[in-house]
Structure formats: structure tokens, C-alpha cells
């Protein structure tokens, strides 16, 4: 297996069968740790020991979609719904800016119409007040014109996980009114408009097979996103999938390493879901090749209501202490916070030597 990992590190890709063989070894500690060590080397060569921080603002938990895995799905009557006001979002940004954040990520459920206008106005205001910051949106599927308005207002990046590229599997995770085609179409729109675009999957989502994951790797190989988001599936007690077990941490780590070796320049977060599934999850993600973390800048009193899954790990606690804790956590493994804005910038295909 180590020779496959070396091959991936040098060539940036494997055959379908080779991806499959490698991923099948996710629970083999020696193989996974070798992949992590090569991925870590690659990330260090490209980014040094700086980890980019993105301030996450959970702007609303109102959602018209009904994804079977997600705690804020519209059918969940046990959620108290909120939407942050323009002024509340600006306050989150101000707090974040003072702490050194230079990327703000506005994430939320899917609502359209007036909400899209409100977001556009907020993006414009953030852009005006913080001209040196990147604005990332993660607000789900929109019509192309809406994405274009977000972009014109000053948003730079968009995160939209495709979740699974296998139509059957997509159909088991989502109600019939949602379509894989629609979601992929959104990704291509976002990229054409000029967003730095992120996609990704939940690892170990219900019914997911190894072949599904291989298909996702092949899709990402082809799509070449600038950002890749991966976290284990985690059950939420009020969803139809409450009884399904959480996804595998080992597979999540293995995939982080595989994607780092495929895409040395990619922005790959060590996600909150990974930090939730294991106490050292965040650190392990970084040691497997991730180079971004997304501390929470949302107001303390709304955080509990943005429960996509159970037991969500608080990342930013009270922003300032949270950041110091993060700093210590990173230092303990030889890393530090990078306060750079951290845009995607291709290094011209230069790969670290070795193998
Ligand atoms: N509504 C937006 C953004 C919010 S959801 C969107 O759909 O893109 C952000 C991500 O959280 C989703 O893409 C999904 O991959 C992840 N997520 C949702 N429910 C989850 C769960 N139960 N466990 C782990 N991740 C989950």
C-alpha cells in the first residue's frame, strides 16, 4: 500500500481500482499513518505550519429542504428557528475582525426570496466595512442569478458539498424533490461565476458504500475544487436517520490525506464534525493534511439551535478564549494560526520531491 501512497504523492492520482484498494485500508493504522505522514509533508511544503482560520457565522437555521440526515431539516418541529439580523451578522464580523479573522463564512439553511436579498445586502456591507477580508457563503442551492448577485456584492468563495455523486445514494439521503443533477449544476454555476468553490461529502453517511466513496473521489478529481470539506456523518436524534451509526474517523482521516496528496494547494478544513467524533479529532485532521479550521463566531445564544447533528463540538467558545485555546491546541502539535486571508493560489503544479 505504501507504494500506492507514494504513487499518489508523485502523480496526484490513482486508478479507480487503486483508490479502492487504498481506501479499503483505512482501518489499517500503518497504512493510514503513512498516508498521513506523506500528506502532512505535502501540506507543510506548501503552507508551512500555519493553519488558516475562518470565522463561521451560522446565519440562520430556517430551511426549506428536508435532507434526512440534517437536524435543521424543515420537518423537524423541535428546532427553534432563528435568522440573524444584518446588524447581528455585522457584529459577529467586527468581533472576528478584532481577533484577527480575515475570512468570514456565512452558513445557513436554505431560504430564498427576501432572504437572498438580505444576504446580498449583508455581503455588500461586509465587503465595504472589511475590504481586506474574504467572504465565503454556504447557503445551499440557488439559481444562478442569485449566486451572481452574491458574487457581485463581494462574496469570494462558496461551499456546497455534493454529498454523494452516486444517484441512488443521493436519492436515499434526500427526498425526491431534491436532485443530484441540480446540486452538481449549482457547483458548475458557482465555478463559472468565479467563486473559489468547495465541495465534499459526509463520510459514512447512511447506505454509503466504499464504491460510493471511490466515485466521490473520482468526481472531486475531475471537478478540481479549491476547497474540500469532509466530516463524518453524525446522527441527530430528531431525524429519520437518528439510529444510523456515526461515520468512521479513520476513513475521514484517510480521505483527508488522499485529497491532500491529490491537491497540494487545496484548502481543506479539519471540520467540527471530525472534532466532535473524537477529542483529538481536530489535531488528527491537521496531522492528516488539513490546513484550515473554522472557529464559530455565531452569537452564543443561537449556537445550540444550529444543531445539524448531536453533541456538536463548540469550536470558538467565547471567541477570544476560544482562539487562545485553539492556538494552544495547534502549538501542541507543532502548528500555529495563520492570520492570512488564505485564498486559493495554485503553486503551478510543483510537487514536493521524494517518493
Ligand atoms: N444548507 C447548506 C449549508 C448547511 S449544511 C448546504 O446544504 O450546503 C452544511 C453541511 O453539513 C452539509 O453539506 C452536510 O454535509 C453537513 N451535515 C448536515 N447534517 C449532518 C450530519 N448529520 N452529520 C454530519 N454532517 C452533516
Explain what this protein looks like in three dimensions.
It is a single chain. The chain has 355 residues and is an alpha/beta fold. The chain has one domain: TIM Barrel (Alpha-Beta Barrel). It has 14 helices and nine strands. It has a six-stranded parallel sheet. It has a three-stranded parallel sheet with strand order 8-1-9, covered by helices on one side. α6 links the parallel β4 and β5. α3 crosses α10. The longest helix is centred in the first third of the chain and has 19 residues. The chain is globular. The two termini are 13 Å apart. The mean pLDDT is 95. It binds S-adenosyl-L-homocysteine. S-adenosyl-L-homocysteine binds next to loops. The site of S-adenosyl-L-homocysteine (SAH) has 19 residues, from loops.
Key features of this structure:
355 residues; alpha/beta; TIM Barrel; six-stranded parallel sheet; three-stranded parallel sheet; 14 helices; 44% helix; globular; binds S-adenosyl-L-homocysteine
Report the count of strand segments: 9
Give the % helix: 40-55%
The assigned CATH architecture is Alpha-Beta Barrel
Largest sheet: 6 strands, parallel
* Number of discrete domains: 1
Order of helices and strands: HHHEEHEHEHEHHEHEHHHEHHE
Amino acid at each position: 500500500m505504501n507504494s500506492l501512497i507514494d504513487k499518489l504523492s508523485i502523480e496526484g492520482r490513482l486508478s479507480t481500482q487503486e483508490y479502492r484498494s487504498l481506501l479499503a485500508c483505512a482501518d489499517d493504522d500503518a497504512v493510514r499513518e503513512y498516508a498521513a505522514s506523506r500528506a502532512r509533508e505535502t501540506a507543510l511544503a506548501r503552507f508551512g505550519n500555519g493553519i488558516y482560520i475562518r470565522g463561521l457565522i451560522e446565519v440562520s437555521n430556517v430551511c426549506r429542504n428536508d435532507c434526512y440526515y440534517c437536524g435543521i431539516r424543515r420537518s423537524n418541529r423541535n428546532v427553534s428557528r432563528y435568522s440573524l439580523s444584518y446588524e447581528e451578522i455585522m457584529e459577529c464580523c467586527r468581533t472576528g475582525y478584532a481577533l484577527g479573522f480575515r475570512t468570514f463564512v456565512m452558513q445557513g439553511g436554505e431560504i430564498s426570496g427576501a432572504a437572498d436579498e438580505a444576504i446580498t445586502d449583508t455581503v455588500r456591507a461586509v465587503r465595504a466595512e472589511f475590504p481586506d477580508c474574504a467572504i465565503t457563503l454556504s447557503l445551499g442551492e440557488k439559481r444562478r442569478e442569485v449566486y451572481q448577485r452574491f458574487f457581485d456584492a463581494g462574496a469570494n468563495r462558496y461551499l456546497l458539498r455534493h454529498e454523494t455523486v452516486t444517484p441512488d445514494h443521493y436519492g436515499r439521503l434526500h427526498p425526491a424533490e431534491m436532485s443530484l443533477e441540480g446540486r452538481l449544476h449549482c457547483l458548475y454555476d458557482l465555478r463559472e461565476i468565479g467563486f473559489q468553490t468547495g465541495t465534499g461529502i459526509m463520510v459514512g453517511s447512511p447506505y454509503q458504500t466504499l464504491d460510493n466513496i471511490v466515485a466521490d473521489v473520482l468526481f472531486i478529481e475531475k471537478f478540481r475544487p479549491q476547497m474540500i470539506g469532509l466530516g463524518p456523518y453524525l446522527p441527530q436524534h430528531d431525524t429519520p436517520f437518528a439510529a444510523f451509526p456515526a461515520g468512521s474517523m479513520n476513513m475521514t482521516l484517510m480521505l483527508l490525506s488522499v485529497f491532500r496528496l491529490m491537491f497540494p494547494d487545496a484548502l481543506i478544513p479539519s471540520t467540527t464534525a471530525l472534532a466532535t467524533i473524537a477529542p483529538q479529532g481536530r489535531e488528527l485532521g491537521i496531522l492528516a493534511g488539513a490546513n484550515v479550521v473554522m472557529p464559530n463566531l455565531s452569537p452564543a445564544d443561537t449556537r445550540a439551535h444550529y444543531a445539524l447533528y448531536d453533541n456538536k463540538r463548540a469550536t470558538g467558545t467565547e471567541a477570544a478564549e476560544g482562539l487562545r485555546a485553539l492556538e494552544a491546541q495547534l502549538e501542541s502539535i507543532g502548528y500555529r494560526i495563520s492570520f492570512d486571508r488564505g485564498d486559493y493560489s495554485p503553486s503551478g503544479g510543483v510537487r514536493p520531491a521524494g517518493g
